[in-house]
Design a protein that fits this description.
By secondary structure, this protein is α+β, with helices and mostly antiparallel strands. The chain has one domain: 3-Layer(aba) Sandwich (Aminopeptidase). Helix content is 25%, strand content 39%. Strands 1-2-3-4-6-5 form a 6-stranded mixed sheet, with helices on one face. The longest helix has 15 residues. It binds coenzyme A. Coenzyme A binds next to strand 3, helix 1 and helix 2.
């Protein structure tokens, strides 16, 4: 696992992303968190864009991640960056919440389906 931090000039960390690289399973964005007082400043999007760039530079054809289905902020962030839902697992959290898997393909999805 690798960790990436977004920090302000003084070095204080504002957000962190965690990525996991597996030669078989692929490139996963495993976690993302931004300090609550710095939400909606574009930090989360930058951290996801950084992970996307790393996956592309490393030669992967896609990046994937899993998000609880009630995490509207993260889902909107990912959909806005052209991640698409690929599957869902039901009732994985203690309160019964579902989890969604999303993927961003670097090759044209239409071509993959042909
Ligand atoms: C999800 C999270 C990382 C987003 O980080 P952020 O830095 O606030 O997000 P950004 O400012 O980059 O927002 C990018 C886009 O995400 C969406 N978004 C972010 N927060 C949102 C919210 N509270 N409600 C709705 N959409 C939201 C919007 O589309 C936003 O674009 P816009 O500001 O142009 O409308 C942050 O809310 C967080 O740390 N949450 C707690 C941890 C978590 O849920 N992590 C993800 C699962 S591992």
């Amino acid at each position: 696992m690798d960790y990436y931090a977004a920090s302000e000039a003084g070095g204080r960390i504002l957000g962190i992303s965690v990525v996991k690289i597996d030669p078989i399973l692929g490139f996963e964005l495993l976690g993302l968190v931004v300090r609550s007082e710095h939400h909606r400043q574009g930090i989360g999007r930058k951290l996801v864009e950084n992970a996307v760039g790393l996956a592309q530079q490393s030669g992967f054809s896609a990046i994937y991640t899993a998000v609880f289905a009630d995490n509207k902020a993260m889902l909107r962030l990912l959909i806005g960056l052209d991640f698409i839902p690929v599957r869902m697992t039901h009732r994985v959290r203690a309160d019964g919440a579902d989890i969604m898997y999303l993927k961003k393909y670097f090759t044209l999805y239409r071509n993959v389906l042909k």
